[in-house]
Inverse folding.
C-alpha cells in the first residue's frame, strides 16, 4: 500500500489521493517503471537502421527491443573538449556517431583525459536525438587494452540480434502452428492455451522445432503434470497423429536438453522444469 | 552521421570481394619490405600493406589495418592499430565470416 509521505511534494499527489489522477501530468507511468532498462551491444549501423525505420524518434527500437542503454566499440575521432564535457566521433567501422561525455567529478575528468584521437574505446551510453541529429551521451568511455574485446563486442552484437529475432520469429511460428493445426478441434484449444516461451528456448530452425514444441506441450498439460510417472510414449503416439519416428526424435531431443526426463522406465517421461 | 566510410571486416579470401572498397583486416607482421609490410592474414594467407606508419608494425605483432583494398592481396593503409602479440586471429576470422555472411546487415 502506498504511503503519501514517500511522495511528499510530488505533483502526482497534489489532489490528496494515493493514486495519481488520470488528468494529472504524470512524470512516471506504470509501464515505464516495469520496463527493464536494457544494455545492448550494438553497431552504429543498427542504430542508423533503427532511426530510419521509425516515425517517432523518441524511442529507438532495435530488433523489436527498445534501446535503453547501449554499448559501442570503435575508434575515437575529432575529439573536442569544453569546460565540463568531452565530445568526439566514434567510428566503429559500420558508421559514425557523435558522443558526448560529461565530466563533472574528478573520476570523470580522469577518465576523459585518457581519450585521445585514434584509440579504440568501449562506450556505454544512451541515444539522444538533438535537432534531428543522432547523438549519444556516454556515461562510460574506456580505452581498450585487450583488442580481443573488439571481436567479442561484435560477436555479441550478432548473438543478441539473434536472440531478439528468435523470440519474435518463434512467436510468429507458434501462431502459424495454431492456425494450421491438423489435429481435432479439442487439441487445437489445448495448443493455444500454452505460453510461447517454450519456443524461445528452441535452438534449431525448421519444421522439427514445431514437432518438438507440440510434444513438449503434451507434457505440460496439467493432467499430465499431475501424473507421478508422467506420460507413456504409447499414449503420446495415440494423442498426436504424427509419425512415430518424428515423435521419438522429439523425445530424444527434449530429454537431451533437459526439458523432460524418463521416470519409472524408458517409456515414461515427465516435464522437467516448472518455470 | 557519415555512412560513407564503413570498413568491412575481411580476411585474405574476403578481400577479393571488396576491391576498391574500405576494408579492415588483421595481419601478423612477417617482414618489412621498405614502404610495404608483408604479413599473414587471419585465414593464413599472405597480405601486403602499403603505406601506413612503419612504427606501428612490430615484427610478429598483430596489426589491424583499415584502408582501401587495392589488389588481390594488398591493402592501402589509412589507419593502423597495433593489437600486440596476444590476439585471437581465429576469432577475428570467424567474425569476418559472420560480418560478410548471414549477419551482413548489422555491419554494412
Amino acid at each position: 500500500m502506498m504511503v503519501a509521505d514517500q511522495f511528499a511534494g510530488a505533483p502526482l499527489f497534489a489532489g490528496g489521493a494515493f493514486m495519481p489522477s488520470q488528468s494529472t501530468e504524470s512524470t512516471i507511468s506504470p509501464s515505464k517503471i516495469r520496463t527493464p532498462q536494457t544494455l545492448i551491444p550494438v553497431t552504429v549501423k543498427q542504430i542508423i537502421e533503427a532511426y530510419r525505420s521509425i516515425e517517432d524518434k523518441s524511442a529507438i527500437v532495435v530488433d523489436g527491443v527498445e534501446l535503453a542503454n547501449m554499448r559501442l566499440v570503435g575508434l575515437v575521432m575529432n575529439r573536442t573538449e569544453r569546460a565540463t564535457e568531452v565530445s568526439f566521433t566514434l567510428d566503429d567501422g559500420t558508421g559514425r556517431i557523435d558522443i558526448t561525455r560529461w565530466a563533472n567529478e574528478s573520476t570523470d575528468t580522469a577518465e576523459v583525459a585518457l581519450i585521445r584521437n585514434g584509440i579504440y574505446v568501449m562506450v556505454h551510453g544512451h541515444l539522444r536525438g538533438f535537432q534531428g541529429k543522432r547523438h549519444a551521451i556516454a556515461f562510460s568511455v574506456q580505452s581498450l587494452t585487450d583488442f580481443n574485446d573488439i571481436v567479442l563486442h561484435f560477436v555479441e552484437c550478432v548473438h543478441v540480434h539473434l536472440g531478439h529475432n528468435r523470440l519474435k520469429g518463434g512467436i510468429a511460428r507458434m501462431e502459424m502452428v495454431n492456425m494450421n493445426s491438423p489435429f481435432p478441434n479439442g487439441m487445437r484449444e489445448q495448443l493455444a492455451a500454452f505460453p510461447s516461451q517454450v519456443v524461445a528456448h528452441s535452438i534449431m530452425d525448421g519444421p522439427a522445432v514445431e514437432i518438438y514444441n507440440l510434444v513438449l506441450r503434451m507434457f505440460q498439460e496439467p493432467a499430465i503434470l499431475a501424473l507421478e510417472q508422467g506420460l507413456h510414449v504409447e499414449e503420446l503416439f495415440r494423442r498426436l497423429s504424427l509419425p512415430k519416428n518424428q515423435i521419438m526424435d522429439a523425445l530424444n531431443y527434449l530429454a537431451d536438453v533437459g526439458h523432460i526426463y524418463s521416470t519409472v522406465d524408458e517409456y515414461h517421461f515427465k516435464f522437467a522444469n516448472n518455470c | 552521421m557519415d555512412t560513407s566510410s564503413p570498413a568491412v571486416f575481411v580476411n585474405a579470401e574476403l578481400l577479393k570481394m571488396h576491391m576498391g572498397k574500405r576494408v579492415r583486416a588483421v595481419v601478423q607482421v612477417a617482414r618489412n619490405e621498405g614502404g610495404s609490410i608483408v604479413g599473414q592474414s587471419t585465414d593464413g594467407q599472405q597480405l601486403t600493406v602499403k603505406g601506413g606508419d612503419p612504427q606501428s608494425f612490430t615484427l610478429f605483432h598483430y596489426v589491424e589495418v583499415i584502408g582501401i583494398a587495392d589488389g588481390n592481396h594488398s591493402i592501402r593503409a589509412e589507419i593502423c592499430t597495433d593489437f600486440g602479440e596476444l590476439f585471437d586471429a581465429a576469432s577475428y576470422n570467424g567474425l569476418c565470416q559472420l560480418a560478410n555472411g548471414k549477419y551482413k546487415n548489422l555491419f554494412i
Residues 33 and 48 of chain B are 9 Å apart (CA to CA). The interface with chain A takes residues 1-3, 5-9, 24, 62, 64, 66, 79, 81, 83-84, 86-88, 91-92, 94-95, 98-99, 103, 105-108 of chain B (CB under 8 Å). Strands of chain B lie at 8-9, 22-33, 36-41, 46-50, 62-71, 74-84. The two ends of chain B are 15 Å apart (CA to CA).
